[in-house]
């Protein structure tokens, strides 16, 4: 039996519960198909069940309505790559990390709530809202991940991180279940399908903002440790330390290797998750009830999967468990390519497999990376890490959208994603975990 979490570790887990509902209900399930429908209507595709290759104009660019969600996610990630390191440098120098976490979360929830006003053919407000909320969510996670190092020892982090992810999937699954009732039973509530979707997206923003209050109240503030000295004002120090971080990370080759590996395999994970509802709806012909039900199944399976990988890491180490999880993702992508249209049973089997490996690989990535960071630099390094974090993948979603625009089919788009898992696995195999932990000046845990 693993040891129980401390009071602060339990409080920290609540933010996984808070933000996972937004990622699940909005970014994973409802936003992409609904945006494609609204944008398709603006582009001249009145039938929401047909693939729309017609374009809409965004800042002078003519983008296929069916690719628009992927392009928006890619843009949010590019913007995050510039914003998050600045936020991270600021967080490392602040004794109020929980305030930064909560302020960014509440701001992100505000913009997420604006998705309620995306209706008819008014897709522009949804495009603005999803980009802003995604960037702010990433900013809040920089502080959140940095707090993990303050409330747990090196040997505790796999367990704490895995339970946090499990708790997040449970919360996300619970809200998704409530939204399933609203969307599928919209007639009983006197709602149209689109109004039910809009209310569900609004509920995710309210959930995110509301449950963030718990970690904000219960977590303690810690005095920053081992902060690198820097002159000037806060903004000047933040920008200056950003460039110092980018220079110095090259002095930690194992940390750099893991960041590159994570960039690739996590982009693959995020693109699979973000495009699952689009692939199921537009390519395989499943109704919204099947899609939401499948994602709901994935959420609850992922709860057990995160706990399972936490136990696996305690026996075999986070590094080996991550490598095994990456191989599992390769198998899932290959099977998904050949799913026949309309076969619900096989779609559910793939969903169960996704749930088993999804939570574990993400939770252990977070805790393993914390071992490769120099003390006092958590915000800066987690900012680099978080630029490729869930919901803000860049290369994967961009490739997914471009391949669809070129081929008019989502099957080759899914096929293209396997390259990200292959590259991630190759880089992980080149990694020496104990060397990386020693180079960062950290204690080597019992199992690496």
Write structural notes for this entry:
The protein has 17 helices and two strands. With 448 residues, it is mainly α. It is globular. The model has no long low-confidence stretch (mean pLDDT 85).
Kindly list the characteristics that best describe this protein.
single chain; 448 residues; mainly alpha; Growth Hormone, Chain: A; 2 strands; 2% strand; globular; transmembrane
Task: Give the helices and strands, then pairings.
Elements: H1 7-43, E1 55-58, E2 61-64, H2 68-92, H3 97-113, H4 124-151, H5 157-184, H6 193-211, H7 213-218, H8 234-248, H9 253-283, H10 288-316, H11 318-337, H12 344-371, H13 378-386, H14 395-407, H15 411-416, H16 418-429, H17 433-439
Antiparallel strand pairs: 1-2
Helix pairs in contact: 1-4, 1-5, 1-6, 1-9, 1-10, 2-4, 2-8, 2-13, 2-14, 3-4, 3-6, 4-13, 5-6, 5-10, 5-12, 9-10, 9-12, 9-14, 9-16, 10-11, 10-12, 11-12, 11-16
Summarize this, please?
Keywords: Membrane, Transmembrane, Transmembrane helix, Transport. This protein has 448 residues and is mainly alpha-helical.
Q: By helix and strand content, what is the structural category?
A: mainly alpha
* Main sheet record: 2 strands, antiparallel
Mean pLDDT: 85
DSSP helix count? 17
In angstroms, what separates the terminal alpha carbons? Answer: 19 Å
The unreliable regions are none
Q: Could you give me the name of the CATH homologous superfamily?
A: MFS general substrate transporter like domains
């Amino acid at each position: 039996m693993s040891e129980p979490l401390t009071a602060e570790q339990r409080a920290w887990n609540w933010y996984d519960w808070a933000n996972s509902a937004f990622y699940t209900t909005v970014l994973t399930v409802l936003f992409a198909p609904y945006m494609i429908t609204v944008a398709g209507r603006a582009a001249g595709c009145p039938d929401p069940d047909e693939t729309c290759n017609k374009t809409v104009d965004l800042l002078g660019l003519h983008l296929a309505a069916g690719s628009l969600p992927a392009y928006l996610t890619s843009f949010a990630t590019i913007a995050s790559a510039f914003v998050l390191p600045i936020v991270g440098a600021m967080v490392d120098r602040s004794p109020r990390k929980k305030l930064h976490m909560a302020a960014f979360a509440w701001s992100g929830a505000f913009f997420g709530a604006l998705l309620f006003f995306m209706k008819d053919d008014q897709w522009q407000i949804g495009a603005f809202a999803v980009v802003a909320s995604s960037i702010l969510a990433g900013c809040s996670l920089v502080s959140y991940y940095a707090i993990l190092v303050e409330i747990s020892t090196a040997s505790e982090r796999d367990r704490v991180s895995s339970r946090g992810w499990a708790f997040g999937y449970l919360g996300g699954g619970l809200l998704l279940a409530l939204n399933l009732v609203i969307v599928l039973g919209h007639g009983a509530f006197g709602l149209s399908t689109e109004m039910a979707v809009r209310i569900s997206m609004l509920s995710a923003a309210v959930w995110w903002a509301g449950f963030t209050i718990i970690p904000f109240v219960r977590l303690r503030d810690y005095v920053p440790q081992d902060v690198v000295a820097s002159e000037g004002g806060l903004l000047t120090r933040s920008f200056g330390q950003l460039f110092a971080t980018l220079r110095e990370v090259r002095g930690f080759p194992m940390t750099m290797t893991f960041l590159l590996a994570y960039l690739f395999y996590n982009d693959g994970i995020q693109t699979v998750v973000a495009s699952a509802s689009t692939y199921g709806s537009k390519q395989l012909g499943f109704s919204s009830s099947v899609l939401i039900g499948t994602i709901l199944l994935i959420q609850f399976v992922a709860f057990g999967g995160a706990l399972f990988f936490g136990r696996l890491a305690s026996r075999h180490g986070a590094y080996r468990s991550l490598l095994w999880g990456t191989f599992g993702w390769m198998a899932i992508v290959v099977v998904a390519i050949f799913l026949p249209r309309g076969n619900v049973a096989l779609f559910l089997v793939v969903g169960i497999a996704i749930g088993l490996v999804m939570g574990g690989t993400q939770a252990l990535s977070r805790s393993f990376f914390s071992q490769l960071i120099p003390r006092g630099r958590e915000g800066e390094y987690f900012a680099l890490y978080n630029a490729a974090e869930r919901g803000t993948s860049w290369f994967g979603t961009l490739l997914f959208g471009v391949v669809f625009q070129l081929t008019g089919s989502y099957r080759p788009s899914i096929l293209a994603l396997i390259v990200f898992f292959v590259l991630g696995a190759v880089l992980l195999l080149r990694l020496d975990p104990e060397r990386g932990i020693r180079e960062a000046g950290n204690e080597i845990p019992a199992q690496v």
